[in-house]
Amino acid sequence: MLYFEDFPAGKRFDFKPIAVKADEITAFAAEFDPQPMHLSEEGGKASILGGHAASGWHTSAMMMRMLCDGYIHETASEGSPGVDSMEWKKAVLAGDILSGTCTVTEARVSRSRPEIGIVKLSAVVKNQRGETVAICDYANMIRCRPTGDAA
After folding, report:
1. Does residue 149 sit within a domain?
2. Domain count, the chain
3. Fewer CB atoms inside 10 Å of the end CB: C or N, the chain?
4. Is the torsion defined by CA of 3, 6, 11, 14 positive or negative?
5. 28 and 61 Cβ atoms separated by less than 8 Å
6. How do residues 114-133 score in pLDDT, each as one tens digit?
7. Which residues have a Cβ under 8 Å from the Cβ of 12 and sit 6 or more positions away?
8. Is 109 in contact with 117 (CB distance < 8 Å)?
9. What is the pLDDT of residues 27-66, one digit of tens each?
């Protein structure tokens, strides 16, 4: 289990690659963002995105999955107080393979809850060509290591 003390500035987590599937783009879009470029290849090609493109919100959800698999599931996480910024830099298209990293930019103990640390991180998601498709700066609340627990 990782605790706040395991998150010094500069620590990096790598994401396992995930494949972006056309049917998942369509299903997400049909429920949450039913714009033509997200619903079909034809709609995507008719747009400035050039193909069947994932919604930015879908891209964010895939990034969240990578964060969970990359470190959150092994962490004494208490959730997030929020996202400072979310940028969608390039369209994510059906067939893309996403991967990336998450880096700790700052860590401090909460003033109001000293048993919790506030860790600020920056996640960068790239496609198979190494192009940045999304950047997210956010905070994670992580429990401090219980007294007496060894690192």
Report:
1. no
2. 1
3. C
4. negative
5. yes
6. 999 999 999 999 999 999 99
7. 101, 102, 103, 104
8. yes
9. 999 999 999 999 999 999 999 999 999 999 999 999 999 9
At 16, the amino acid letter reads K
Distance CA 97, CA 128 (A): 5
Residue 36 is part of a domain; what is its CATH number? 3.10.129.10
pTM given for the model: 0.93
Q: Which range marks the domain in which residue 80 is found?
A: 4-143
Within a domain: 151:
no
- CA-to-CA separations, 14 to 80, 85, 90, 115, in angstroms, rounded: 20, 20, 20, 27
Edge-to-edge strand ranges of the sheet holding 132-143: 12-19, 97-109, 116-126, 132-143, 82-88
Contacts of 107 (CB under 8 A, 6+ apart): 4, 7, 8, 9, 117, 118, 119, 120
Q: Which H/E stretch holds residue 125?
A: strand 116-126
Q: Is residue 148 part of a domain?
A: no
